[in-house]
């Protein structure tokens, strides 16, 4: 009869990944960006409805937020994979921030500027969100200085 060894493998904690500072910064930054994106879409839609009173205008606003994802999302992966991923994510967020901050400045000139700003601010997000950059490379970006020690090695399927 074989004797069981005393060494047992323990599973790492579900939140062990958050001990990596770079990953925690990336995760919290992306979470805030997603909340901001959602709030911007809702606020722009409400603002358009208050200004125009038209449900069709609200639909056009929602279409303006999703159109860049449809247009650029299909081909974004081809071009995005050739760029520095970390620089792309940071630059995209900076561009979105500047465009969102322009909304109160350009809104007195007409609601049409809101459509333009929302559409152009959705474009960098669609390049990051719809392409493989966001999901496939978040760990290599965050753990480039040292290997992660809290995660077990990958196991092969039987």
What topology emerges from the helices and strands here?
Elements: H1 21-52, H2 55-80, H3 85-101, H4 103-106, H5 112-129, H6 133-136, H7 138-142
Would you mind describing this structure in some detail?
This protein has 158 residues and is mainly alpha-helical. It has one domain. The protein contains seven helices and no strands. Helix 1 (21-52) runs antiparallel to helix 2 (55-80) and helix 2 (55-80) runs parallel beside helix 5. The two termini are 25 Å apart.
Quick summary:
The protein has 158 residues and is mainly α.
Q: Compute the separation of the termini in Å.
A: 25 Å
SS elements, strand count: 0
Helix and strand pattern: HHHHHHH
* Total of DSSP H or I helical runs spanning 4+ residues: 7
Helix content: 55-70%
Largest sheet: none
Task: Estimate the global geometry from the Cα principal axes.
Answer: elongated
Strand portion: under 5%
Q: How many domains make up the 3D coordinates?
A: 1
Tell me, rounded to a whole number, the average pLDDT.
78
Structural class of the secondary elements? mainly alpha
Q: State the low-pLDDT regions, or none.
A: 131-139
Radius of gyration: 21 Å
Key descriptive features of the protein:
158 residues, mainly alpha, 7 helices, 0% strand, elongated
